[in-house]
């Protein structure tokens, strides 16, 4: 196993420094051209790869271009347009209902506050943070997706388990100027190297400071299970 830095703050800064060097162009991978498209894409990305979402939204955004378009679309029609997405039926319902509220309560504009966004169906704090950061240039939190959840635990940065608790923990540790980029760096590393089932510890730039490193480590701190 690797040996983490003495404090969680030092460990976090070292992780950021190394991952910035490894992924200098790290950024959001969902494709969108406006706030509504961003909101739709993030709702669809729950438990689904960004690659799959991007393939689906390429034609979706040509067909539906306004909140009214989604709100007025029959449920069956919208669900059929999303049928390659995980849980497409539920997500079609969330999108229709969210767009109804956007039309009725927000003059057709995607809200720009955490409270208003999380009132929309299918929108939790993670989704709201993405929309605020990349749609409104408002940074008030850290996006905790499955990669961030897994890597921060594996690296000994947090012992929290729930995304909401992890985010609150990270807000005290991650330098504020990195609240957005921290997520992108961990997502890139989670996809490329520190995968859920079979992380490539031998080629990992963080192996020597990772307490979950498989070389002689016994436990995956992300799950608490033996390797």
UniProtKB/TrEMBL annotation:
Instruction: Fetch the SMART domains from UniProt.
Output: ENDO3c, FES
Q: Which GO terms describe its molecular function?
A: 4 iron, 4 sulfur cluster binding; class I DNA-(apurinic or apyrimidinic site) endonuclease activity; DNA binding; G/T mismatch-specific thymine-DNA glycosylase activity; metal ion binding
Cofactors needed by this protein, per the record, are: [4Fe-4S] cluster
Q: Where is the HhH-GPD domain?
A: 44-192
Q: Its catalytic activity?
A: Hydrolyzes mismatched double-stranded DNA and polynucleotides, releasing free thymine; 2'-deoxyribonucleotide-(2'-deoxyribose 5'-phosphate)-2'-deoxyribonucleotide-DNA = a 3'-end 2'-deoxyribonucleotide-(2,3-dehydro-2,3-deoxyribose 5'-phosphate)-DNA + a 5'-end 5'-phospho-2'-deoxyribonucleoside-DNA + H(+)
CDD domains per record: ENDO3c (cd00056)
What domain of life does the native source organism fall in? Archaea
Pfam families given for it? EndIII_4Fe-2S, HHH, HhH-GPD
Question: Per its database record, what is this protein's job?
Answer: DNA repair enzyme that has both DNA N-glycosylase activity and AP-lyase activity. The DNA N-glycosylase activity releases various damaged pyrimidines from DNA by cleaving the N-glycosidic bond, leaving an AP (apurinic/apyrimidinic) site. The AP-lyase activity cleaves the phosphodiester bond 3' to the AP site by a beta-elimination, leaving a 3'-terminal unsaturated sugar and a product with a terminal 5'-phosphate.
Q: Which NCBIfam families match?
A: nth
What family, per the record? Belongs to the Nth/MutY family.
Q: What's the name of the protein?
A: Endonuclease III
- Which organism is this entry from? Halovivax ruber (strain DSM 18193 / JCM 13892 / XH-70)
Q: Which gene encodes it?
A: nth
């Amino acid at each position: 196993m690797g040996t983490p830095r003495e404090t969680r703050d030092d460990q976090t800064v070292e992780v950021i420094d190394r991952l910035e060097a490894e992924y200098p162009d790290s950024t959001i991978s969902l494709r969108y051209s406006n706030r509504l498209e961003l909101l739709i894409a993030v709702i669809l990305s729950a438990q689904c790869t960004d690659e799959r979402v991007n393939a689906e939204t390429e034609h979706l955004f040509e067909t539906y271009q306004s909140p009214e378009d989604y709100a007025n679309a029959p449920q069956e029609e919208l669900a059929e347009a999303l049928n390659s997405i995980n849980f497409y039926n539920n997500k079609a319902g969330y999108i229709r209902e969210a767009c109804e509220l956007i039309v009725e309560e927000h003059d057709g504009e995607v809200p720009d506050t955490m409270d208003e966004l999380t009132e929309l169906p299918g929108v939790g704090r993670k989704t709201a943070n993405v929309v605020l950061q990349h749609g409104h240039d408002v940074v008030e939190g850290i996006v905790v997706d499955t990669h961030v959840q897994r890597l921060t635990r594996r690296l000994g940065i947090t012992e929290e388990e729930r995304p909401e608790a992890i985010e609150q923990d990270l807000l005290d540790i991650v330098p504020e100027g990195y609240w957005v980029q921290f997520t992108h760096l961990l997502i890139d590393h989670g996809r490329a190297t520190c995968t859920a089932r079979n992380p490539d510890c031998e080629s990992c730039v963080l192996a020597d400071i990772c307490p979950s490193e498989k070389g002689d480590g016994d436990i995956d701190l992300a799950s608490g299970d033996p390797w």
